Amino acid sequence: MASEPIIDVRTIPHASRHSTIFSTFAALAPGDGFEIHVDHDPKPLYYHFSAEQPGAFTWEWLEEGPELWRVRLGRTAQAGA
């Protein structure tokens, strides 16, 4: 996991954040993932993934604020199988 990409959402225009994250996720091979850095609680993103990718993703909290939230978002091994 140490070599996985990091998306620092704080550097992406607000209107493009979810689409950037979803397109990065779509390019993942099953079992792979990436880390997201954001300056607010990303629960809305979690709910977005839950609605559009049920069972296809993993969500691991690495840091939960108050100034930085870090999440590892991964594609499940069975996704796309």
Quick structural gist:
The chain is 25% helix and 30% strand. It is of the alpha+beta class and 81 residues long.
Tally of separate helices: 2
Radius of gyration: 12 Å
CATH third-level topology: Translation Initiation Factor IF3
Q: What is the typical, i.e. mean, pLDDT?
A: 92
Q: Could you tell me the strand content as a percent range?
A: 25-35%
Q: What is the second-level CATH architecture?
A: 2-Layer Sandwich
- CATH hierarchy, class: Alpha Beta
Q: Report the count of strand segments.
A: 4
Q: Write down the secondary-structure element order.
A: EHEHEE
> Quick one: biggest sheet?
4 strands, mixed
Strand order of the largest sheet: 1-2-4-3
| Helicity level | 10-25%
Low-confidence stretches: none
Which descriptor suits the 3D outline?
A: globular
What labels would you give this structure?
81 residues; Translation Initiation Factor IF3; alpha+beta; 4-stranded mixed beta sheet; single chain
Structural overview:
By secondary structure, the protein is an alpha+beta fold. The protein has a single domain, classed as 2-Layer Sandwich (Translation Initiation Factor IF3), CATH 3.30.110. The protein is 25% helix and 30% strand. It is built from two helices and four strands. Strands 1-2-4-3 form a four-stranded mixed sheet, covered by helices on one side. The longest helix has 10 residues. The radius of gyration is 12 Å and the shape is globular. The two termini are 22 Å apart. The model has no long low-confidence stretch (mean pLDDT 92).
